[in-house]
Amino acid sequence: MSLDYEYFKEKMLELTGFDLHGYKEKQIRRRLGTLMKSLGAEDFRAYYQILKREPQHLKRFFQRATINVSEFFRNPQRFQELQEVHLPQLLARQGCPRVWSAGASTGEEAYTLAIIFSELGLRCARGILATDVDEEALQFARQGIYPPGRLRHLPPGYLPKYFRAVGENHQVIDQVKSLVSFKRHDLLRDPFPSGFDLILCRNVVIYFTQEAKEKIYRGLAQALNPGGIIFTGATEQIFGSRDLDLVNLSPFFYQKK
Ligand SMILES: C[S@@+](CC[C@H](N)C(=O)[O-])C[C@H]1O[C@@H](n2cnc3c(N)ncnc32)[C@H](O)[C@@H]1O
Q1: What is the dihedral of CA 32, 34, 38, 42, to 10 degrees?
Q2: In angstroms, rounded to a whole number, what is the distance separating the alpha carbons of residues 14 and 224?
Q3: How does pLDDT run across 53-63, given as a tens digit for each residue?
Q4: Are strands 196-201 and 145-146 parallel, antiparallel or unpaired?
Q5: Nearest C-alpha to atom 17 of ligand 1 is from which residue?
Q6: Residue 162 CA to ligand 1 centre (angstroms)
Q7: What pTM, to 2 d.p., does this model score?
Q8: Can you give the pLDDT at residue 19?
Q9: All domains of the chain, ordered by start, with CATH?
Q10: Atom of ligand 1 nearest to the CA of 187
């Protein structure tokens, strides 16, 4: 690990409260490289000085460092499995499951779930908590207006049923919105909420160090009610899940004993 990056991490924590310690250095270097060059910063020490002096550049720093890519029904077969296999099991035990979409980005994941709930006839007002460290992504999510590319995996018939046209884009209807509440939460720094029956944490921990990943999965497992389920991203596995009292139901689904 280089000294200028160590300095940068410490200083950015002081300046913004954003903790880079849990993120993989290589990823961050790769993601910020072109941005630093465009500002004429030769190394992280110089980049920090610029960010401190000219805070208008912080916005792009956060955008690059946190990667907000998302879409509705991302990995559609997994959502089908959730809807057909795991949700019915949860619903048999409890009418309105408490759900947490952790690292929800611009809201597609949480609204996907809200649409599934609507399909199942569940009316659980604000039953889905969606959190992210990136306040700007959350603002986008609260508006709920999406370009067509984010909707390419929507099942047939859902577009007219759950969206209204806004120019060339599509806005989630209020009935779907009313099922979700968005809140800022940093998985690396903030205390975890608890009492959930279903947690989605997908395509978030891939950017974290092994140590940070383990800490987050331990926290998520503790945040689940007995019998509750964690749904991970398509390339993510919870190593040592048994030590966390989690049973691997199928790839990407884990149930708390
Ligand atoms: C690639 S998006 C995943 C969005 C969604 N879960 C999905 O799978 O489509 C990753 C999200 O993780 C968020 N993130 C990164 N670091 C975080 C942290 N420390 N705490 C909470 N969220 C974080 C980013 O802001 C970004 O919105």
Answers
A1: 70
A2: 32
A3: 999 999 899 98
A4: unpaired
A5: 133
A6: 24
A7: 0.91
A8: 86
A9: 3-66 (no CATH), 76-256 (3.40.50.150)
A10: 20
